[in-house]
Predict the 3D structure of the following.
Amino acid sequence: MTMQALPQAAAQISEQPIFELIEVEQVFEVPKPGRRLFSRDTVGLRALDGVRLSISKGTSLAIVGESGSGKSTLLRVLLGLDRPSGGRALYHSKPILEARSRGTDFARDVAMVYQDARGSLDPRMTIGALIAEPLRHFDIVPREEEAARIAQLLDRVGLPADAANRFTSGLSGGQVRRVAIARALASEPSVLVADEAVSGLDVSTQAQLLILLQSLQRDMGLTLIFITHDLGVASYLCEEIAIMYLGRIVETGPTDAVLNAPTHPYSAALRAAAPQFFEPLSEPLSGEIPSPLDLPKGCRFSTRCPKAQADCQLKDPQLGKFGSQRAVACLQPLTQI
Ligand SMILES: Nc1ncnc2c1ncn2[C@@H]1O[C@H](COP(=O)(O)OP(=O)(O)OP(=O)(O)O)[C@@H](O)[C@H]1O
Ligand SMILES: [Mg+2]
């Protein structure tokens, strides 16, 4: 390699996505509906079905979709907690499970904030001890600097230093989420993954946490992967959005572009269901999400899609490029490039 080629090679390396999912499938064997008592008949439930996703460094990505669309299953694959039953799930171009099993680097670099923050924190431990746990596990600071680092982390998430001596039982819902975020940040991760981290809180507490998460993402250059039901939250916090339906990502792109001019009828329907943030559309989504045990023929959204044509029941559209920054899986896109 010549000297001139080096900067270009370095640029290519830095553009490599952190996570890449290529045709990822996750099939769970579940009891066959209507099976006889004591029968062991099972059937494959396709919780993820051909998921394609690329997450680049420093981005903030919202994963949205109705209950049962596969968001948490996708997250478990990204975190290396479950092995996908098909396709490839990569972290810095290596299989996620391989990265996770090789030492502590992956666990240190990819931190998680759980939906049930209170349930994920031991009520018998002080907040200081809860934050000290990852500091010690990953050997982040010498013991004599531990108290100062805990105070620094508490300050970063907007909690007073004396919170270190208290227990989670004495904290409000919003404060407990802040502790969970401080604990996640203790290992100095570059990726923060959160499953519904601000749901179930009153509006002003939610807004304060969103402001905190946004400042952390910007100041620390974190890559943020945020699961939410709430398009308002997604549009406030995340530059990119991936919309899931029945185990597949049906549209991705910059959040503003996708929400202002949805290309997939499902994205449009989700937006219509969030009138507090957007003008309601005239065709709200009807019916319920079908069971993944009985996927519709052709396009999986065709049974509820107001734009469905005859070929939508025959062809299963794959996620394909739509313009330079977006991708959509639809035979009848609402907007043209
Ligand atoms: N371990 C499992 N065994 C069997 N089925 C599962 C398992 N985990 C998830 N599923 C099924 O996979 C589908 C997707 O579930 P998942 O929890 O990923 O959805 P979700 O989008 O996170 O929903 P919610 O918004 O309600 O959290 C559902 O039909 C669910 O019942
Ligand atoms: Mg979930």
User: Anything to note?
Assistant: The first strand starts at residue 19 and ends at 31. The radius of gyration is 22 Å. The longest helix spans residues 203-220. Residues 1-13, 278-282 have pLDDT under 50 and may be disordered.
